[in-house]
Amino acid sequence: YLELSSNSITGTIDESYCSVRLNIYRNLMTGKIPECFTCHFSDLYFKSNFDLNFFDNYDTIGTCKTIPKLKYLNQTFWKQNKIVTEPVLSLIGQNIGYSISDIETNIPFNFMLKANSKFIKYDSYTPNRIIHEISFRSTGQNFTLTPDPYPPLLSNITSNNHILEFKGLYYSYDITEITITIGDKSCDVTDSTFYQITCTLITYPNQLNNVSGTLKVDQLQTTFNLNLDNNDGNEVFNNYTSCPDNCESYNGNICNYNTGICECPKDWTGENLFNNYTSCPDNCESYNGNICNYNTGICECPKDWTGENCYTPIYYVSSITPTYEDGGLVTMNGWFGDIHKDLNITIGNQECKIDTISSNTITCNIGAGTGKKDVIVYQNGITWKSFNFFVYQSKQQTCLNNCIDTNHGICNTSNGICECKSRWTGFDCSSPSNNNNNNNGNTNNTVNPDGSTTINNDQTTYNILITSLLELDINSDTVKQYPLQNNWNITSNDKNGSNVTFTQILNETECQIVLSIQEIENDIQYSFAGLEFKLDKGSIKVSVSIHNYNYQSPLNTLQLQMISNVSDTTSNDCNSKSASTSTSILDNQTLNYISINKDNKILYGRFINRAISDGHTTLITTSLISSQNESVTIGINIPHCRTSCYIDPDFSLLISPDFKSNCNNKSKKYVIPVAVVVSCIGVAAIVTITYFIYKRKQKKIFEKKIINLNNLNNK
Prior knowledge:
Blueprint: E1 2-3, E2 10-11, E3 22-23, E4 28-31, H1 35-38, H2 44-47, E5 54-55, E6 67-79, E7 82-94, E8 103-105, E9 111-114, E10 118-121, E11 132-136, E12 141-145, E13 153-160, E14 163-169, E15 178-182, E16 185-192, E17 196-200, E18 211-217, E19 220-226, E20 232-235, E21 254-256, E22 261-263, E23 291-293, E24 298-300, E25 305-306, E26 312-313, E27 316-321, E28 328-335, E29 344-347, E30 350-351, E31 353-357, E32 361-366, E33 372-379, E34 382-391, E35 409-412, E36 417-420, E37 424-425, E38 431-432, E39 443-447, E40 453-457, E41 460-472, E42 478-483, E43 489-493, E44 499-505, E45 512-519, E46 524-528, E47 531-535, E48 539-547, E49 557-566, E50 580-584, E51 591-598, E52 601-608, E53 610-613, E54 616-619, E55 621-627, E56 631-638, E57 645-647, E58 650-655, E59 669-671, E60 675-681, E61 683-685, E62 689-691, E63 693-695, H3 709-714
Parallel strand pairs: 1-3, 2-4, 4-5, 48-60, 57-61, 58-62
Antiparallel strand pairs: 6-7, 7-10, 8-11, 9-10, 11-12, 13-14, 13-20, 14-17, 15-16, 15-18, 16-17, 18-19, 21-22, 23-24, 25-26, 27-28, 28-32, 29-30, 29-33, 31-32, 33-34, 35-36, 37-38, 39-40, 40-41, 41-42, 41-49, 43-44, 44-45, 45-48, 46-47, 49-56, 50-51, 51-52, 52-58, 53-54, 53-57, 55-56, 59-63, 60-61
Transmembrane segments: 670-694
Organism: Dictyostelium purpureum
Keywords: Membrane, Transmembrane, Transmembrane helix
């Protein structure tokens, strides 16, 4: 209800107001009243809600198409001194009015839940296949409806110049619920009632005699045979005789349309086998796309629903926006359904006190704490849990190696990023920069058929590989593992090879992964989850997208594993140095790092502990899977996201401060910037690998001249 009478309001009203019972009596409004209201203007009391304005059509009774349905819908309400949730008989649809008193029927509806689209009857209702007559006094329209599941019955079909008319029982006023197939052709439904359907068969099937067809109404269907060689308005059945109670809907029975006898399968008998028909609890088919298995009487629930009648949501949390260590508001996004009985949220050992809740978002307030915490959500008798999903955030972020010292750079404590001074570069400002040397001609970047990227300079070769995607259970045990290497198909490749796209479908799933590798031609700024980053010219952006991953359990999560390694070849100059690795991984910091040092060149990996999960920013964690002298394997832990996750690590290869540019006058190549960036979309990672190679040309002159000073003097 929206009460705005006697307010001197100006302006117009549009159809967005059709879903409320509106009272704008005595205002200054103009224009036209939407027909969703004017079609009920034969009800003078209802019409008076719009009186004493300046509308153009106040004295006109409009027309509106009413599409009613009777359904069982789950509803939570107060009953016998407690809150209960149970199915109630509901009249739903389009343009069904604004008052219970406007409805004339033998069903005593007692509450308008949503104006013009939903009325309910709180009392219990037992499915009995009774056909109800419903009339709307204000529009003068009459309808025949039943809420009970019953396949459509056919009495006859006529055809006239591509127009087919079906007569029978248990049809629908909503043409979007009806599908008719004749042979291999669709018949487009143009009009329908409870007793009759009209459709247009634009193209006839190749076979005209004894053509099989299917009539489907709201998930229940029946089959038939007809002739289409006589289309002058005659019946087109091929001696069609309807079988009792549409026997074909059950147990694999076959209707003999010539005799009208239901031909039963082995172990079954009877006229129509209804003695073996089993109904599902509370007419499960009225909810959420559920399907009743009439052989077993079990309600087959769609994704994200469970329970005897599929009323209970299988909920999950896909993202969390945490708070700082002094506590505060926490936001959880995911799927929680519309029923929240006994809702309780625990983070660590503290209760998170509920602030707001909807089907997709919960906000709650938590006290002070530190570190990683388990998250437990309980409602409707079901517990959802995720280990170490919540991480208290530190207001003061630290930088890698504290940016060496103030001569090298300054740490931005708000994001943990070093702001390097001139002559220095890198994640910790430890590498000397050489802005006058930009020749990367001695660097070879190769995109391999397995989706990896190889960067080679001199005798040092680094590889970046996205190796596998794992589904982990609540105990972090692997329940599914998908190798990503050697399964790619190249779908596009530009002329110079600077933009390559791969795709693959995970084995025995509908999950698609797309990998694209693109070279960046100019310096760019990019942002991710509220953080700003610079990507230098020469960067190679590697994007990975994962779509429609189907989890085995709502408690499960994903882990994307990546390997960074360096070849074990050793140079024979003064920069020769064995490979070594190190890590800096802290849960409460925005940025974590790994590094591989070889021949005074250091590969840094920076991992951002943020992701975008199903459109919302959330914190993630990074795990060190293994570390050897020449290789580091990292696991990026991704929450239970259904549509998309974005993550954003990056890598840079820099020279060490100990790097010598000249070894006993021997030629030596320097390191200049080249970058590789990997982004994940759906599950997306952006990896930046900056490979610095500095080159200084040096002339070698090895000529010995014997100069005769005497001869020179003679000259």
